[in-house]
Amino acid sequence: MKVVCYCRLSKDDNKSRYSSIDAQMELAKEYADSQGWEISKYYIDDNVSGYISNDERPEFSNMLKDIDEGKIDIILAKDLSRIGRKGSRTLTFIDELKEKNVNLILTKDTFGEFNLLEGDDDLLGLSTWFNERYVKEVSKKVKIGMHKQLEKGILLQGTKFGYLKTAKKGELVVDESVRETIKTIFDLYEQGLGMRKICHKLNFEYDFLTPSQVIERELIKKGKSYKKTVKKLWDIYMIKRILKDEIYVGTVITHKTERKDIHKQGKKVKRENQYIFENHHEAIISKEQFERVQEMMKKRVKSSSMYTKKKRDYIFGGFLRCGECGGSVTGVARVRNREGDIPKKLYECVSYRKHGKSRCVCHNVREDLLLTNFKNFLILLRDNYMLEINNLKLEEYKTNKKKNTEEQKINLKNLEAEYKVLVSQRIKEIAISSEEKIEFIENTYKGLEEEKYKEIEKTKRILAELQNEDLEIKQEKLKQTIDYFNQIIENDEPDKAILNMLIDKIYIYHDKSVKFELKIDIGKLLKCEKELNFE
Questions:
Q1: How far apart are CA 253 and CA 155, in angstroms?
Q2: In this structure, are residues 185 and 198 in contact, taking their beta carbons and an 8 Å threshold?
Q3: Could you tell me if 254 and 194 are in contact, meaning their C-beta atoms sit under 8 angstroms apart?
Q4: Through-space distance between the first and last CA atoms of the chain, rounded to whole angstroms
Q5: In angstroms, what CA-CA distances link 411 with 48, 406, 416, 462, 496?
Q6: DSSP 216-249
Q7: Are 155 and 170 in contact (CB under 8 A)?
Q8: Those residues with Cβ within 8 angstroms of residue 317's Cβ, 6 or more apart along the chain or in another chain
């Protein structure tokens, strides 16, 4: 008898409600001893959410492989929420265990002890719905609690550079060791020094700690360690963030971002919907000086002596990335002092422009050279494309089409199996439930079944598209792409819409080389990737 145990704990669990990993292991061992079994292996996913897919959980994924290889007869777990919190996914997994004759025993589930192969699955659907609902309810309650704190002006994510939190919730006091740093930065900027020059002064003329050094110092005082990289030199980003932060005039602004749903990224909130608390704490900078500095920053952006920025005038705007640091690239126009000179458009790494050599190296590409080389790249690609149209192998095409079709058929089969499990479980639970619970059960499964049905319909559409596609259509698409190439090659300024259809990314490098990546199928058909050097 090959018996294993699966344990899981994540940050979205209420630790007072759900046992620690050690406690889960102990429960499993006690049960195994009572049955005269020996647990051969423990699969442990610590700090891993039960809401993500099975493949994304390292140890769960390893357990699935061992099940497929016939290395497991019985799985022990504390409760069904340890197996997963996504209802339909958990039910499908349990259905697969039945087919493979692998038993799942839950020792302390919400609805009592559970033994899969002894017919204890009457309330499985309700249990999985409860577990999935729990995650969403916890997320909702946490969000409400955080919202109430934000409405009171309480900072939830640590302190701000220059201030310390007190024992009283929401109260901030000035960090006297940093006060002079803040005042010096504002004074130097108001004296006319740019951010780069301020960085130089702070790094070589003053003995001021950087924000991350201050955080590290405070954590050490509390017996903790700072796990992030400690930056020992000031950069432009730090200076700009300090100069723009209203915290230094005694104002706290909360609710700057908002997350609409679980596991989704937060979005910026408009200023009129943010919570603004003036005179919240002691100011380090006067409001008058802060306003003067903001006005100076606006004027400097408008009247930059070297660059002016015109987003809509740049042919390749939005396509470029820095090949050195992976960051964004922006269009800039170099302005000469001689009257009547036409500005030369360039593309330059944003990280270098903002932070200097501390983040990236100096490099840019002229737009006219980029366009010329892109056209040369397309000419070369077009000639190869013409050969491809003449040499398309029908048999190879059919093989690839068959492979894609089989993959989608397998996906459809799995989705239909999941849908079948949901329907079967709903019917089973309705049959054993009282009349007052039937409506509750129907509503519970309705959303799950609709979601699964949409996935099935989507897969069917993909299959239909594969069956309708043929070689002649593919050849027409290739010819249409060549027409796009010709339009770009022949025009002085290419159509932005055509560029959007063709270009995925363009990477620029310090050695003046540029790498083009296209959206179209050309990469798969020709496996052609060209790098050009702008000397």
A1: 9
A2: yes
A3: no
A4: 70
A5: 26, 9, 9, 11, 37
A6: HHHHHHTT----SPPP-S--HHHHHHHHH-GGGG
A7: yes
A8: 311, 331
Instruction: State the sign of the Cα–Cα–Cα–Cα dihedral 91, 95, 97, 102.
Output: positive
Distance CA 52, CA 126 (A): 20
Structure tokens belonging to residue 246 = 């209203």
In angstroms, the CA 185 to CA 342 distance is 36
| pTM to 2 decimal places | 0.37
Q: Given the structure tokens 């960085």, which residue do they identify?
A: 199
Distance CA 217, CA 225 (A): 9
pLDDT average per 10 residues of sequence, the chain (535 residues): 90 56 89 92 87 82 92 90 75 82 79 63 46 48 50 57 76 89 93 86 87 88 80 88 90 67 60 75 91 86 49 74 85 64 77 78 82 86 68 61 84 86 81 78 80 87 73 60 78 75 84 80 41 41
DSSP tag of 23: H
pLDDT at 158: 60
366 and 346 Cβ atoms separated by less than 8 Å: yes
Rounded CA gap, 244 and 234, in Å? 16
CB 226 within 8 A of CB 212: yes
Measured between alpha carbons, how far is 6 from 58 in angstroms, rounded to an integer?
A: 12
Q: Element (H or E) spanning 8, and its range?
A: strand 3-9
Q: Are 161 and 242 in contact (CB under 8 A)?
A: yes
CB-based contacts of 356, cutoff 8 Å, min separation 6: 196, 199, 235, 236
Distant-in-sequence, close-in-space partners of 163: CB < 8 Å, separation ≥ 6:
172, 173, 174, 175, 247, 281
List the one residue out of 375, 187, 378 whose CA is nearest residue 290. 187
As given in the structure block, the two tokens for residue 470 are 């043929």
